[in-house]
Amino acid sequence: MTIPFEPIVFGYIINIHLILEYLAFFVGFRYYFFLKKKRKDNIEATNRLSIILGAAIGAFLGSRIVGFLESPVIPDNTIQLLQLLNAKTIMGGLFGGLLGVELVKK
Q1: What is the DSSP letter of 43?
Q2: Does residue 12 sit in helix, strand or coil?
Q3: Of 5, 10, 26, 96, whose CB neighbour count within 10 A is largest?
Q4: Of all helices (H) and strands (E), which one includes residue 8?
């Protein structure tokens, strides 16, 4: 078995990581709605949108900045520039998302 595990179903290679990631988003979103039905929410809709936007922008920027800091190179050509723009980390995304939410709440 090779890592990552990618089974072949009906002649197509299936990316298990992608499927499980989408499944996690779906289950998390459904669980959020399940919990939201049971409790009254204290956050107004406009504030919630601002918090979600702060988290998304913070996570995007944080993951890219930390990804760049892992291997800081000045791109010489277009391929290196695209590789630099694709550098991202989960820790940078989580930290950036947290900072984005806290800045919006402040």
Answers
A1: S
A2: strand
A3: 96
A4: strand 8-9
